[in-house]
Amino acid sequence: MSTAIHRVEDEMLDVVDDNDRVIRQEKRGIIHAQRLMHRAVHILIFNDAGQVLLQRRSANKDTFPNRWDSSSSGHVNAGEDYLESALRELGEELGIRDIGAEFLTPLFKINAHPETGREFVWVYKARYNGPFTPLPSEISHVAFFEIAEVARQLAANPGEFAPAFALLWQRTQSAPGIEPRG
Fold first, then answer.
1. Domain boundaries, the chain
2. In contact, 1 and 82? CB cutoff 8 Å
3. Which CATH superfamily, name and number, covers 8-172?
4. Considering the chain, what is the average pLDDT of its residues?
5. Is the separation of the CB atoms in 92 and 76 below 8 Å?
6. Averaged over 85-105, what is the pLDDT?
């Protein structure tokens, strides 16, 4: 019996052009090494109190270990669309399964940018109080924060956050339905 070892650098992703059109598939490691444009999703989960869930990235992550990030995020796999990827990531990273597209509300799309690692990013929001089962290889822990506190911490300690999160959080502040309560 053979045991397959999953290596993130071997994941297959779609390479896209300046207009986010798929031009080919390539391994994640090559895409990052050659700085090719590709796709990702970020999901912001809010609880009934209006707080946002953030994840602390695992120390084992190859990019931005131990930094705060969106509730859930990840690459869009080869052949997937953004919504499929967002639903998959919620299951893999946080244990939120058996949900449909109605669980997520699209907020906005960010074009490929240096802060996103040359990723086109769709940002979604969801309302959910838990429970959460964080995947230890991806996430060290999760916590809910007041929206105003996230803004204060980003201003005071930007190095504690993944760059893509900082960029999307700035855009989120003008998104409909996102109001600070604390």
1. 8-172
2. no
3. Nucleoside Triphosphate Pyrophosphohydrolase (3.90.79.10)
4. 91
5. no
6. 95
